[in-house]
Amino acid sequence: MRILLLGEYSNVHWTLAEGLRALGHQVTVVSDGDDWKNYPRDVNLRRGKGPASAINYLFRVLRLLPTWRGYDVVQLINPLFLELKAEHQYYIYRFIKRYNQKVFLAAYGMDYYWVHAGLDGHTFRYSDFNIGKQFRQSPDIEQWKSEWLHGEKGKLNRYIAQTCDGIIAGLYEYDASYRPFFPDKLTYIPFPINRSLIYPAQLKDDGQIRFFIGIQKKRNAYKGTDIMLRALERMTAQYPHCKICKAESIPFPEYQNMMNHCEVLLDQLYSYTPAMNALLAMAKGIVVVGGGEPENYQIIKEERLRPIINVHPDEEHVYQQLVMLAETPDLIKLKAAESIEYIKKHHDHIHVAQQYIDFWKSK
Question: Which pTM was predicted?
Answer without folding.
Answer: 0.94
